[in-house]
Known about the structure:
Layout (H helix, E strand, L loop, with lengths): L7 E6 L3 E7 L6 E8 L5 H12 L4 E6 L9 H16 L4 E6 L3 H11 L11 H20 L5 E2 L10
Parallel strand pairs: 1-4, 4-5
Antiparallel strand pairs: 1-2, 2-3, 5-6
Helix pairs in contact: 1-2, 3-4
Amino acid sequence: MSPRRGVRIGVDVGTVRVGIARCDPDAIMTFPVVTLRRRDDWSDVDELARIIDEHEAIEVVVGLPRHLRGAEGVSAKGARRYARRIKDLRPHIRVAMVDERLSSTQAHQRLRESGVAERDHRAVIDQVAAQVILEHALELERIGGRPPGSTIDATDRKDSQ
């Protein structure tokens, strides 16, 4: 089954940096976009909103960091809070959380396989992790025939404190 037509944005939320990737309108290829530095004033989310607008995205997929056994910790709470900020700024866009277990490991492996020296990973690792998250979401949609992940509702504030 084919995914819906339209650009999606993949987001890998970290405590210091946020990796951004996107797919083409046919949801076939993914591309690294940028790594944003996290800001206390949330201006990095404003910059992400501009990227969403620039690419006329139909959806934002935010990685949900879970422990290997599936439990959520502090990082997951932070990712949910970040996703809600995105939804607040772009309420007309679907924002969803997708399991991102092992995305960083896969990103490092891809960079090694493509010949990027380990010391040079830091500059792009977050973007590649965002690509991995986005590719996983697109595959879930192809297999399941429906939009991936759990949708963020801007009115739900249980983790926003």
